[in-house]
Task: inverse folding
């Protein structure tokens, strides 16, 4: 039997869908009778950043669910409060993101969580700043520099700004014995790698180490043989590549194939992923990278007790794999909760902002202490430095998280 | 003549009424208005080419991006100038650069028709986006910040609301004048049958180039406003393929048959997605999709077409 879709039928179906959605919203609001702390903001639930947006959302939701369902809320100013997320989809579109955030500001939402990627967050920060409401964000393109260099006072980020995000690696190399002397820096021309590379160069110079050559390459690499020729000529002790997973894989492969030996190879992204280590096999050993967060880190947390317990609760309630985005996002809510407990009220965003600026706690994410500009402290909140050892990723720095001594210098490619 | 005068007077009254709204509305509704005007402006620019000639561009985001980056780079060069001059320089840079690029690619690309033109424009947008990313002089990959050029003491969203409204009025006026000119009739002839139009003496290539350059240049000027309003742009944010799609969907939903179609479409789509469905985190895309399907089924000529049909 053939069915025809009539015009009236289509309109009925559409009205029904909108009606069901509206009822859902009404039901949700009726369920809340306790005083509520509402966190507003937008999130890229669709569009280019959807995958990361969903991970960030899962991190936010896990803490809210735990506080409400397991702890029965949070005590603020002598009253128990529920936590509520009022997040809407910005569809990875900055224009939509600012418009929808403006609605929440007009609706008197006091506390904001961040979206993802600098082009979305930066226009939003201009609005929250004007409204004098704090925003704690879990990722502006990995802590994009412009968010924290324009004098904004109400925005805080869990990551160090991009240009400082690889500082822990420089510091870890400085601590090696014998100390490496010469460095070559390679970065790609994209919003994250470029400031990261420029920051590394500054840090190396600050530490008195010699940068023998710098390469700025296109965002998508096809061939790095010219760079490797230069590596063979200059013979730096360490090659630091601030590159994406795919670019890092290409560089490491071509280095191994051309037997271009260095005492240490660092690629900011790549070795963290098992697929990268499998693709390189024995040639992955010795490559260092930075790992923002891992559920195995031994931190204590004021809400969950520890990182491990957060991970356990997360996995029991979510299907998305637990990666650093969830940990960072969860830490945003942990920071807010701790600050609200100190402030003792939920209707004073300026007091919350001031308390966030002074916050210094250990959480499931690690230490939370912001710089005066609002980004994560590059040393206290910086990444761990990890190295591939026998196919496994091992923390070699900082000391507290260390799982293995660094392999230094790494074995020449021909002896593997 | 009297009817033309009536249309002009009504349009002026409508725009004047819209211009007073920021004096009463909350910031969010002003921003919704701003979004509608920008979306409507982009859609009318796209329609200037597609509606008149049936050359459907899937890469008009190229002109948004070019206009945005031209404005951002120009504003850096004239950073010491007064905000009013900066604004004029930025808008002019967006308009002229996008128009020049449109003129440069017009001759080869307008030799293509149908799907070939559509895909070629998609490629143009990708190539220009990659170029802006690849060459550090443009700063596309790392992003560019733009200064706040709103006069001090004026609400930023209201300033951009008025700017976008003024540009929309200009774009609509140009489109309306074209529709009543020899150029407009020639373009309509191209849309109906390009070969026949050529045989009848319509200078098809010249007319298509004019429409293409106008469409591209005006999109570039709106791209400059789009960038100024955001304050920070990267290649990803202004060479987004979804911007091209929005222009097309707004025109289709509103109706391709008249100048008001893209404006109605932009108002409906922006209103529905930002006012009605904005709070629905998981379902808004599905419902928006249903809405588009419903419009296609109920009103294949768009909302303006449906209105015309019901009046008959």
Result:
């Amino acid at each position: 039997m053939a069915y025809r879709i009539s015009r009236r039928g289509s309109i009925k179906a559409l009205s029904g869908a909108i009606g069901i959605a509206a009822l859902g919203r009404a039901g949700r609001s009726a369920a809340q009778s306790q005083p509520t702390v509402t966190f507003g903001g937008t999130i890229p639930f669709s569009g280019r950043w959807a995958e990361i947006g969903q991970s960030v959302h899962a991190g936010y939701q896990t803490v809210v669910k735990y506080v409400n369902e397991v702890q029965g809320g949070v005590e603020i100013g002598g009253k128990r409060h529920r936590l509520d997320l009022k997040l809407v989809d910005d569809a990875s579109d900055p224009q939509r993101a600012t418009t929808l955030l403006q609605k929440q500001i007009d609706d008197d939402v006091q506390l904001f969580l961040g979206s993802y990627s600098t082009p979305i967050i930066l226009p939003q920060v201009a609005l929250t700043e004007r409204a004098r409401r704090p925003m704690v964000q879990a990722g502006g393109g990995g802590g994009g520099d412009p968010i924290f260099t324009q004098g904004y006072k109400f925005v805080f980020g869990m990551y160090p700004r991009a240009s400082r995000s690889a500082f822990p690696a420089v510091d870890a190399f400085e601590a090696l014995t014998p100390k490496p002397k010469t460095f070559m820096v390679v970065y790609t021309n994209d919003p994250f790698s470029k400031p990261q590379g420029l920051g590394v160069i500054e840090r190396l110079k600050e530490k008195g180490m010699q940068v023998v050559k710098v390469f700025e390459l296109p965002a998508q690499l096809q061939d790095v043989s010219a760079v490797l020729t230069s590596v063979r000529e200059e013979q730096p002790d360490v090659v630091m590549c601030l590159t994406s997973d795919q670019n890092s894989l290409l560089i490491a492969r071509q280095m191994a194939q051309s037997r271009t030996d260095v005492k240490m190879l660092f690629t900011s992204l790549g070795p963290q992923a098992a697929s990268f280590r499998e693709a390189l096999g024995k040639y992955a050993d010795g490559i260092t990278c930075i790992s923002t967060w891992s559920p195995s880190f031994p931190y204590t947390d004021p809400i969950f007790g520890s990182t491990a317990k957060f991970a356990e609760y997360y996995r029991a309630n979510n299907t998305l794999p637990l990666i650093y985005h969830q940990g960072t996002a969860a830490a945003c809510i942990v920071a807010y909760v701790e600050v609200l407990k100190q402030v003792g009220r939920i209707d004073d965003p300026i007091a919350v902002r001031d308390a966030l600026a002074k916050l210094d706690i250990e959480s499931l994410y690690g230490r939370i202490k912001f710089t005066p500009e609002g980004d994560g402290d590059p040393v206290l909140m910086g990444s761990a430095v990890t190295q591939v050892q026998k196919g496994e990723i091992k923390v070699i720095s900082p000391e507290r998280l260390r799982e293995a001594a660094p392999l230094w210098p790494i074995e020449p490619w021909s002896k593997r | 003549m009297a009817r033309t005068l009536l249309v002009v007077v009504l349009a002026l009254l409508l725009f004047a009424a819209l211009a007073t709204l920021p004096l009463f509305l909350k910031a969010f509704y002003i921003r919704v208005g701003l979004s509608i005007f920008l979306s409507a402006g982009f859609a009318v620019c796209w329609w200037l080419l597609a509606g008149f000639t049936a050359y459907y561009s899937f890469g008009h985001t190229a002109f948004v991006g070019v206009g945005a980056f031209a404005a951002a780079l120009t504003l850096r060069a004239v950073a010491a100038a007064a905000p009013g001059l900066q604004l004029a320089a930025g808008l002019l840079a967006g308009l002229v650069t996008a128009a020049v690029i449109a003129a440069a690619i017009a001759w080869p690309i307008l030799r293509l028709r149908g799907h070939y033109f559509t895909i070629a424009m998609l490629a143009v947008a990708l190539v220009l986006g990659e170029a802006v990313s690849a060459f550090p002089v443009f700063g596309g990959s790392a992003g560019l910040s733009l200064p706040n050029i709103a006069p001090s003491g004026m609400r930023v969203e209201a300033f951009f609301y008025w700017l976008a409204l003024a540009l929309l009025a200009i774009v609509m006026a140009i489109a309306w004048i074209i529709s009543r000119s020899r150029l407009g009739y020639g373009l309509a002839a191209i849309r109906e049958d390009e070969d026949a139009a050529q045989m009848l003496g319509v200078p098809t290539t010249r007319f298509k180039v004019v429409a293409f350059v106008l469409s591209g240049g005006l999109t570039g000027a709106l791209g400059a406003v789009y960038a100024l309003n955001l304050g920070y742009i990267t290649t990803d944010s202004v060479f987004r393929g979804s911007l091209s799609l929005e222009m097309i969907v707004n025109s289709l939903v509103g109706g391709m048959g008249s100048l008001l179609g893209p404006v109605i479409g932009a108002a409906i789509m922006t209103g529905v997605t930002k006012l009605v469905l904005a709070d629905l985190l998981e379902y808004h895309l599905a419902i928006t999709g249903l809405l588009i399907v419903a419009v296609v089924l109920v009103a294949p000529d768009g909302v303006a077409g449906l209105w015309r049909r019901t009046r008959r």
